[in-house]
Specification:
This protein has about 400 residues and is an alpha/beta fold. The protein has 19 helices and 17 strands.
Length: about 400
C-alpha cells in the first residue's frame, strides 16, 4: 500500500502540473480561445472509463481545482483506437478533450486536430516520463498530448510448464510447451522481422522515404522460420481469443498480449500466472531479440475548442499523477509517470513490470507517420497467408519480397 507521505507527495505534484497548465496566456499555445466563466467541455473516453467512474471523478476534481470555471460537462464514448478517424472527420465538431493512441499522432497533426502542449506542461511531461514515452507524443520536436499509459504487448506464460529460464528464448519454449502467437495480426507479427535486423521507415521510424526494410535474406530467413514452425505445429495462431481460452483449458501455455488482458490471464492461470518481456528467438542459427511496437495512450485537447485554455488545462489534469493513480486503482491502467511505477502497489503488479521491461528493453517506437496507413492491411494479409500455409519454407523468399513491395508501393 502507498503510505500517507507518498500520497501527499503525489497530490502536491498533481497540483503542480495543473498549476503549470493554468498559467497565463503567454504560456498557452493558441491564445485564450475565448473561454469565459461559463465553460462547456465535450470529453471523449472509452466506455470502461465512464463505467468505472474514472472520468466523472476527475471532472469533479478539476472543478474543485478551478473554481474560476462553471463547467458543463458532456461525456461521449469513443475509444482511444477510434479517436483519430473520428476527430479527422470534422475537427471543429470533435471533442474538446480526448484520449488517443499515439500511432494516430501524425494524422491528427496533419489535420490540425490536436493542440501543442504549453511549454510548462511539456517540460513536466519530459521530467515525469522515460524518453520513450516523451518520443511517443512528439512530432517534429513539438509535444502533443500527455501520455498516461504505455501501449505495447509482452508475454504471459504458465509457470508450471515454462520456467523463468525457459521464458527467455522462444525456441526453448516451443520445444517444451504450446505457444500461441497472433501471426495474422499486423501489430504483432513484425516483432520477428525487427529481431532479425529489419527496420520500418528508417532507424527512428520517422522517415517515410526509407520504407520497409523487412526483405532480402534476413527477411526471407524470418518467413521461413515462421512457415516451418507453423507447419510443424510448434507455433499456433492466436485468433479470436483462442490463446486466452487455451490458457484456461490447458491446451496453450504461452500467449502474447498486453496489460488489458492481465485480469483474464490471472483467472485462467491462477497460481501459475507469470509474465515477462519478449524473449529472444533463434533464427537461422542466430539468437536475436524479438521487438514489439511500443507507444502510449495519451490525453489531448482540440485546438478548435471554443474553450481552448480550459480544455488544455483539463488535458494536463487527466495526465497528472493523481489522475494516473486513480486510473490504475479504478481500472488497472498502468501509469507512465516514473515515480508512480516505483510505488509499492504498481511495482508488485506482474503485468505492469512486464510492460515496463518490454518498453525499456524489447521494443521499438511504433511509427506515427502517415505512411503507416499502408502497412496494416498488407501485413495482416501476409500473416493470414502464413497461417493458411500458402506461404511455405520453399516460397518464403519470393513471398517476402512480394509483401515488402506492397509496403513500399508509392
Amino acid at each position: 500500500m502507498i503510505n500517507s507521505k507518498k500520497i501527499v507527495a503525489l497530490l502536491a505534484s498533481s497540483a503542480m502540473l495543473v498549476g503549470l497548465a493554468a498559467c497565463g496566456n503567454s504560456d498557452a499555445k493558441g491564445g485564450n480561445g475565448g473561454e469565459s466563466k461559463d465553460v462547456k467541455l465535450l470529453v471523449w473516453t472509452p466506455q470502461e472509463d465512464q463505467k468505472a467512474g474514472w472520468i466523472q471523478k476527475e471532472e469533479k476534481a478539476f472543478e474543485k481545482a478551478h473554481p474560476e470555471y462553471k463547467i458543463t460537462w458532456s461525456n461521449k464514448v469513443v475509444s482511444e483506437g477510434d479517436t483519430g478517424n473520428t476527430v479527422k472527420k470534422d475537427p471543429a465538431a470533435a471533442a474538446d478533450v480526448y484520449l488517443f493512441a499515439n500511432d494516430q499522432l501524425g494524422a491528427l497533426v496533419d489535420s490540425n486536430a490536436i493542440g501543442e502542449l504549453a511549454d510548462s506542461v511539456a517540460q513536466q511531461v519530459k521530467s515525469d516520463n522515460d524518453q520513450s514515452m516523451v518520443d511517443s507524443v512528439t512530432d517534429n520536436g513539438k509535444l502533443y498530448g500527455v501520455p498516461f499509459t504505455g501501449n505495447t504487448w509482452f508475454m504471459y506464460y504458465n509457470k508450471s510448464k515454462v520456467s523463468e529460464a525457459d521464458a527467455k528464448n522462444l525456441n526453448t519454449m516451443m520445444d517444451k510447451a504450446k505457444v500461441s502467437f497472433p501471426i495474422d495480426n499486423s501489430w504483432y507479427m513484425p516483432a520477428f522481422y525487427y529481431a532479425n535486423g529489419g527496420s520500418l521507415y528508417g532507424p527512428k521510424g520517422n522517415d517515410g522515404k526509407a520504407g520497409a526494410d523487412f526483405g532480402g535474406d534476413k527477411g526471407a530467413a524470418v518467413t521461413k522460420f515462421l512457415a516451418e514452425n507453423i507447419a510443424n505445429g510448434k507455433l499456433v495462431d492466436d485468433a479470436n481469443g483462442s490463446g486466452l481460452a487455451g490458457l484456461a483449458n490447458g491446451s496453450v501455455d504461452v500467449i502474447f498480449s498486453g496489460t488489458w488482458d492481465a485480469e483474464n490471464v490471472k483467472k485462467a492461470l491462477g497460481d501459475n500466472y507469470a509474465a515477462a518481456q519478449l524473449p529472444t528467438v533463434t533464427i537461422d542459427g542466430k539468437e536475436v531479440q524479438m521487438k514489439s511496437f511500443a507507444g502510449s495512450k495519451a490525453v489531448a485537447y482540440n485546438p478548435s475548442s471554443k474553450f481552448q485554455k480550459a480544455a488544455a488545462q483539463f488535458a494536463a489534469f487527466l495526465g497528472s499523477k493523481g489522475a494516473q493513480l486513480d486510473h490504475y486503482e479504478m481500472r488497472g491502467v498502468v501509469p507512465t509517470i516514473k515515480s508512480l511505477l516505483d510505488n509499492d502497489k504498481v511495482k508488485g503488479d506482474i503485468a505492469a513490470k512486464a510492460q515496463a521491461d518490454t518498453i525499456a528493453n524489447t521494443s521499438v517506437l511504433q511509427p506515427t507517420i502517415t505512411e503507416m496507413s499502408n502497412f496494416w492491411d498488407p501485413t495482416q494479409n501476409f500473416g493470414k497467408a502464413l497461417v493458411e500455409k500458402s506461404v511455405t519454407p520453399d516460397n518464403a523468399a519470393q513471398k517476402t519480397e512480394d509483401w515488402v513491395n506492397q509496403l513500399n508501393k508509392k
